[in-house]
Amino acid sequence: MPEKFITYQELWGRDLHDFCVEYEFLLDENNNSIKQPFQGMRSDFSYEGYDNEENYFCIHPVFLNKDGEVIIDLDEEISLTGKAQMWILMHERVNEIHKHRAKPGTICYFMDGLKRIAKAMITEINWK
What we know:
By secondary structure, the chain is mainly β. The protein has helices spanning 8-12, 94-101; strands at 19-25, 44-47, 59-63, 81-88, 107-112, 115-125.
């Protein structure tokens, strides 16, 4: 395993993330995080209000530090609340789906299978 996070700019050859969110990982009945976040996690993604099997997407978070910079050190603990860049894996679906759903203020979720593990709100869009 590499010691440093390989950015999606490097991995996928894209210049810019698709959008940004403010997130909060959800807690279980014992006040523990349902899932501990880590840089490079490949959670799925869903939009609030579209609760069906067609509402699950490969959109991955890249967690930012308090200064708004990508966390590169894989040993750095990721906060349960914060900001993340979001990268759409199947980028060809941006015009078909995401431009209609992803807008500032939209509520969305990081998913582990069909289980919501974090609630987020879109704060910034990087397409026209």
